[in-house]
Amino acid sequence: MGSRIANLTIAAAILIAVAMIVGAALGYHAGRSGAGRLMVSCAVLGVAVVLLIASFRLQPSRRANVALALVSSVSTVYVVEAVLVMLSPVTTAQVAACMRTGEPFKCIAALSAGDAFDTRTKIEVVRDLQADGVDAWPSILHSPLVAAYSDRQTGIMPLGGISGVSTVHCNESGEWVVYTSDEHGFNNPEGLHEAPLDVAVVGDSFARGYCVEPPQNAAGLIRRRYPRTLNLGIDDSGALITLATLKEYLAPLEPRVVLWMYFEGNDLYDLDREKGSARLLRYLEPGHAQDLAAVQNEVDRELRAYVRAMAPPASTEARLQGRDRPLYRFFALAQLRGKISLLTRPQKRARDPYDRELFRRVLVEARDTTRSWDGALYFVYLTSFQRLSGSDDVEPHRDEVLETVRELGIPVIDLYEIFRAHDDPLAYFPYRLPGHYNERGYRALADAVLPVIEDAHP
Fold first, then answer.
1. Among 40, 197, 219, 240, which has the minimal tally of Cβ within 10 Å of its Cβ?
2. Is the domain of 233 the same as that of 269?
3. Digit-coded pLDDT (tens) for 424-446
4. Are both 45 and 11 inside the same structural domain?
């Protein structure tokens, strides 16, 4: 290889490495990767750049060997990528479409199995429904909502959702779940926000019934036996938001049984974030509430304005699709990187979010509030895919959480013990992948709590 060609090859490799460093930095700032991945990428690529620059000091013959090794290595890598693309049961175009969804691995698994999967984004589904004249709105993540309202000294902090609209929720199994919200924006038929109530379900997205049709989620299945069952699940919520929801919407209704759905996968992390909100911490005070049920029109106005402000313009969304196009993914070695990531064991979580005293105070207030109307609070421990699959990335405070709950005299329904007794507990998750429960999982959850409810309703 001529000296000039060798120099150009090495220079091109340096430029590519620098571009990859810039791309890693942009990915980090866009929220597509974490700080750890950025540091490793920059360290490895930085060393490569230094060594390549140093190679210009070598003899011409040795520089030629370096350039030849670069060309051979790159060619081999892309041959492997091409083979993986050809062997994949899913086309490159289909993979690219899946990468636009919020559940790319489930989408790829569905298409590999020959199942259909709607690859529209949530905002695209909303806009398609609106174009057909439907009053459609996306479901709301409450962590950014709480952050946006926590600094406000006056006015309400909305919970729940926009009332009486078609709510575009999620898609983990192939079809988007869209339901009509109730009079306070929750996932229920209308008319349940009236006393007396048999059962109330509070908690996060698992309580809400993430990605299954409303009749197939836990509250919907319980409602077949106890028609006056109210679902107050809120996506992306921890214990403080759950307590706030209980005090705002259940105190006037006095349900006989309250099921507190606790998901071990993220509830402690959500609580760790929520404790930074002075407005949420006020719910630890006995009797504190904003009386949100009485001001639903104001809640609707606030939430509509919030969604409009957060929704990306259509042109911006279109630009974001470029990185997931087939040619981009080929040159980015998407197939090869995906295979490597499957071989990498997940790391244990480094941050310890467990604030035992705060968690205890939240449960004490929830227990005492429920007892004030002679209701019974049950703590339903929802187990994660990671624990059932034996992953290292599992929440480490299971025993401490359950000990705290039992010390407070709150009965526990432990779904882990029930799920692990099944021959194939991973079948309770869509395509046997991490996420929420599928219809079978919610059925197992409902079957676990119904005997307890029956004991409380002699």
1. 40
2. yes
3. 999 999 999 999 999 999 999 99
4. yes
Q: Is the pLDDT of residue 246 over 60?
A: yes
Q: What is the mean pLDDT of the chain?
A: 87
3-state secondary structure of 419: helix
Is 60 a member of any domain? yes
Under a CB-based contact definition with an 8 Å cutoff, are residues 127 and 253 in contact?
no
- Inter-residue contact 377 to 410 (CB < 8 Å): yes
Please give the share of the chain, as a percent, with pLDDT higher than 90: 61
Residue 316 has pLDDT above 50, yes or no: no
C-alpha 325/C-alpha 413 separation (Å) is: 46
The H or E element spanning position 314 is helix 314-319
Return left, alpha or beta for 8; rule: phi > 0 is left, psi -120 to 50 is alpha, else beta. Answer: alpha
Q: What sign has the CA pseudo-torsion 189, 191, 197, 201?
A: positive
Q: How far apart are CA 321 and CA 323, in angstroms?
A: 6
State the burial class of residue 359 (Cβ atoms within 10 Å of its Cβ: 0-12, 13-18, 19+): buried
CB atoms within 10 A of CB 134: 14
Q: Looking at the domain assignment, is residue 348 inside a domain?
A: no
Amino acid 351: pLDDT: 56
Quick one: how many helices (H) and strands (E) in the chain?
Answer: 21, 8
Distances (CA, A) of 116 to 86, 119, 128: 21, 9, 19
pLDDT-wise least confident of 139-153, 340-354, 365-379: 340-354
Q: What is the mean pLDDT of residues 186-213?
A: 96
CA-to-CA dists, residue 9 to 3, 41, 59, 78, 275, angstroms: 10, 22, 15, 17, 54
Give the distance, in angstroms, between the CA of residue 389 and the centroid of all CA atoms in the same chain. 18
Indicate if 83 and 114 belong to the same structural domain: no
Cis bond before residue 458 (omega within 30° of 0): no
Across the beta sheet with 136-138, the strand order is 136-138, 166-170, 177-180
Its domain, for residue 337, covers 92-119+315-343
